[in-house]
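Section handout 9: paired folding examples.
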Amino acid sequence: MDYRFFETVYGLSLIDDLLTIVKISQEIKGCSSEKIAGIADFCQLSDSELRRQSIPEIPGNATVIVSLPIKKLLLRTVPFQGPASQLKDSLREQLSTLFPFKADELAFDVYPLGDGAQTNEYLLTAVKQEVRLDILRRLALLDIKPRQIIIDPLAFINCINSELAGQIVAHDSANQVWCCKFQKDTLQFAGTMRDSRELAAYIAENTPDTLVADVSAEDVAKGAALWHLDGNDTPFTLLDDPPPIPGPLRLFKILTVITFFCLLIFLYSNWQAKQRALQHVGAEITKLTAQVDSTLKIRSDLDRLKKQVELINGMYAGQPSKVRILLEMSRILPKKTWLSSLTIKGDDFILTGEAETASDILVILDNSPLFSNIQLKAPVVKSESGREMFRIAGSIQSRKKNHR
């Protein structure tokens, strides 16, 4: 790892509501780490109790990296081919369909799973705004201002043995069951499980070289600091979420309002010019010339904006995006349906997974206006749990076909 020399970083973890602060100093000869504070029940203490806590002073310009535990997060794996920025733009107004909260109630970011250069999946991570803001407020009472908020699965990367090919970090308690899968120093999977049986099944299916039962709070805090020191170039933070980017419909409405006000301004200016022309004909000739030039520029701008709107509408009316296809399947398929893979090639797709009755999946997909030519690609077989394992093929309907 390309460590940064002569830098001090503070890593913070919040495992089991224990605020653990580790200070790491990086020098040419190596780095030294020191646990400088630990505050139990951090999120339960009152403001006055927090102010009475005695911790070493952290400089105001210090680099502070906070790692949020999985217990406070909402995680989902999203299949997507393309840059993270494009995926975030697509998901920004769709969060309410993926999580049981309004979009403005969540802060989120995405992280590439597997090889970041050729990833086909992203880890979508969201945290409730009230939880995030409460943690920041409590840290401010301790005079701590984070520069970045990451998550424990990313901090684990610096806690495990990067030489081993396959490793799984798992946690099984009465409050929550989760696991993270790593391939050397690359995150492959992170998510919560329904119970211990599902965790055991996942471990059995993805037999690791090493199984780590848990990682200590101090190691996670150290891993958060090292996330910054090793110069990680993959952007990820839950510190702040940029405002939504307008979609095509909202952009069209904005352009319509702008055009209306431009027209009002032009008409009013023209009326004023005519009134002034009755008294100052000579002087008004110059002003009217300038107004004509302004009018031509406004018309040119309106033509340009109209072409942009037509281009956006043309793009929106084409083939449905992969994100829309994924959202449609999430909406119509029964909750007890488990999908293992979705492969899309051109207008065709192949879907594999498990359900209580595979024939129901065929009927549901066939009734969707987004899909057609639904058929079994392979015979239905029973899994060990008695569920039916299916492999279904079909075609994707374009918007133009849907409107016919």
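Moving on to protein 2 of 2.
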Amino acid sequence: MNCRNCGNLLQQGVMVCPYCGTPVNNGMQQPMGGPMYQQPMMQQQYAPPKKSGSALKIILGVIGGIILLVIVVAVVIVLTSKKLKCSAAGGSFTVYYTDSNIWACTTTGTGTCDLDLLQSNAKTYGVDKVISLLKTTAENSGAVCTSE
């Protein structure tokens, strides 16, 4: 049976709800001398369940933040980078660079590009000298080079 006032489940035979103190009318006559009151039982504290997805949300938030940061850095590099494109009859190459680093090179046809070597030389001699030497060498070989 449930308490008509608070709705809590009542043990059989109680005369008063131990949770709210409301007299229970269970069809029995009350004893002489008025209602018999029992000492209210200690109500068990309710602890809300822990959120199981909160750690996952934090991890996904951190991963999302890292991805966003990588995208922003890539956009900044692309927007601030320069490009040297050299084309000849057999193929072409394009080198993408900033003032401080050579970060990519692409080729078509028989063109070749060794990014590791370009980056190593850029650290040793500077980006401007490497790009200038690359352009001069390609033009001396008959290529047409443009800088953007």
